[in-house]
Amino acid sequence: MDELRLFTGTGNPALSERISERLGVPLGQMTVKRFSDGEIRVQVDQSVRGDDIFVVQSGAYPVNDNLVELLIAIDAFRRASARRINVVMPYYCYARQDKKVKPREPVAAKLVANLLAAAGASRLLTIDLHAGQIVGFFDLPVDHLYAGPIIAEHMKNNMQLDNVVIVSPDVGGVTRARSFAEFLGAPIAIIVKRRPEPNRCEVMEVIGDVDGKTAILIDDMIDTGGSIISGAEALFERGASDVYAACTHGVLSGGAPQKLIDSQIKSIITTDTIPLPDKERDGKIIVVSVADLLADAIARIHGEGSVSEIFSKHWKGQS
Fold it and tell me: Parallel, antiparallel, or unpaired for β 188-197 and 164-168?
């Protein structure tokens, strides 16, 4: 009773295995199959009565299949009398639909929160939400982690960080860029742009000094790569000597890996919140793991410890 049980969906089993190794807890037995018409069937193959369940499922492609699979798994655990069902969703899908911009638009990020709660989730553990207000969409506890320190630590250990400027690719990411800059002891710059339509942006201005500097573009996600590539081009036009890019969630859809590899960006650092096949990295796209971060948080949640202490020493203002 009240054992920590770790399960994985099909969204990112490699990350789940890494978390399992860090925790020293084996992955639970769960079968996920599909009927011939595409319906998803989940079977929990062991007793979980009274246990503290952590189910890992990233909201990556195929997004809708992974989301529905997660909802069905939560329902299965609830009906199996689990004491608590903690959803570990490293990448929270539909996060970009967090507000109404035009008439008759949905707020899909809130809908996903409602679905998770209705299915029977007790808690959400996630990393770098696209918009912080999504935490308020939930009436259940949300532990919101940040991958910035992991990425910054990788850069400190593997890059020459002299004469560096941290660049936010838009005004909305200034808080993230400022925290990242504080961690590295670097100044910041901001790219001002507009989006005439989804997945398309136009750079209007760069605020801050980038001339002769190594610029590091930092964002929560890279999807098609168009925004980051156009931002890098604007930085080079304004005298940047080198441009690196970093993000937590490498969505990388629509041929984005090859576009990034072919671009002037020196390297792109992302994490394994979303699986990225080795063949799409080509040495230029570097993946660092969030497994230690998630394993630490899971252990603290199970032991009723403080999750915010993970960041209290080095990530001021974000914990």
Answer: parallel
